[in-house]
Design brief:
Translation Initiation Factor IF3, single chain, DUF2249 domain-containing protein, globular, DUF2249
Length: 84
């Protein structure tokens, strides 16, 4: 199911995980999340529901709020907002 992107989500940095080699994908995503300041957000496009990655993110010292913007079997879009 695809939700329309809100005006607040438009223009956010977007990272397409499908374009990153699998061997370094999680590291690249963690690196991108690490650049966010509190209150900043980014959108991750993933080829599947990235549950293992989400568990890794829960273990980070920083905190993130996440919101699924699209849940399609071929493409997921998740907005990550750094909260702490």
């Amino acid at each position: 199911m695809q939700l329309p992107l809100s005006d607040a989500s438009k223009g956010l940095p977007t990272l397409n995980a499908s374009e990153i080699p699998h061997a370094v994908r999680h590291g690249a995503i963690h690196g991108a999340l690490g650049t966010l300041n509190v209150g900043e957000a980014m959108i991750l496009i993933a080829p599947h529901n990235p549950l293992p990655l989400l568990r890794e993110i829960e273990d980070r010292t920083e905190s993130f709020e996440l919101k699924y913007l699209q849940e399609d079997p071929a493409e997921y879009r998740i907005k990550f907002t750094r909260t702490a």
